Amino acid sequence: MKECLPKHRIRLFFYLSALYAPPVPAPGPMVPPASMFGNVPGYEDTLSGGGGGYLPPPMPLHPNRDPEPAPVQQDWNIPSITEDVARERFIMYASGYCCYNNAPAKDGVITNMQAFNTYRYRLETFTESRSTEWATKPYEGEPADFYTQTAPRPWEIAVTGPSLFQNHEENIKVPYTSSNKPCHTCSASGKMPCHECNGSGTKACWVCNGSGRRGGDSPCSQCNQRGKENCSKCHGNGTKECETCKGKRQLLTYINLKVEWKNNVEDYVVEQNSGLEVNNLSDVTGKTLFKNAQYMLYPVYGFPDPSLSQASDRLVREHQAKYSQNSRILQQQQTIELIPITKVTYKWKGGIHVYYIYGNEHQVKVPDYPATCCCSIM
Fold it and tell me: What is the pTM of this model?
């Protein structure tokens, strides 16, 4: 015959189980059920949490006119620098390093200065793309306008964009798609059990580990011999405000339209045999030889370097095919810059050395400075 435990011992068992139970992990955000969202014509593929993807723009009412040929630019002159400028920039460069002796820059004898033709072609395609998703926010008393009128289609909503070729993003609540629903996370209670204390409101005293005494028979002053103390996360309530509805109990559901303007940039740099790596040119500017902006560009033809014309033809075709699929091309712009590169050869202490000066900023690149020392910071 089984022995029945007294009720007070059973209650004590469950109390201690809750008191010493490890905290459960904080629950993550719950995915709203599909039943929360209505069916809106034109938005049938819109899902919660980023569904729907990018929406193709509508076909234009009138066919686009053919792009116009770019005007021929005849000024292909190469700017050059003087020996004094080359020496001054080299001295400034050496002075910027504590471990460089500036003697090579000051006393080195320049024996040759050679300029190189280096052209950079840049194509910019400014696009607008739109995507939709069902979204929720704590209900603040906003009017629910779901189905009071027909919701406009994604590309019918008027949006003011930024200046051309400037990246920007806007999030817009689609009209006539919002409704208020009970919060699915807390079942419209506005509260959730505290994960730190498992909803009990108390935790074992961290000083006496729940015994109520410390150091033998000394009473614990931290918990006044109770062996427990109020949970600091929920202030002893056992519950916390629901993070989904922020205690409002209701959610506003609506379709969010994300409009993204993006400037898609791609460069092509003509190969040059100066010895300077192309990636050094990304931070400098050059002399603008040609610039053209249109809704849809025509490639640059007849440029003195045929590889640049070929790159222009390839990039223009690729951009127009790629970015017209799921976005609207608003404007294209192409630029040709001449980036000056001067290879300076100089002699110092019987050795022959080189350095480069490039860009409008007269940046300096020294592959191997001949007079360095080991320095340490005390």
Answer: 0.73
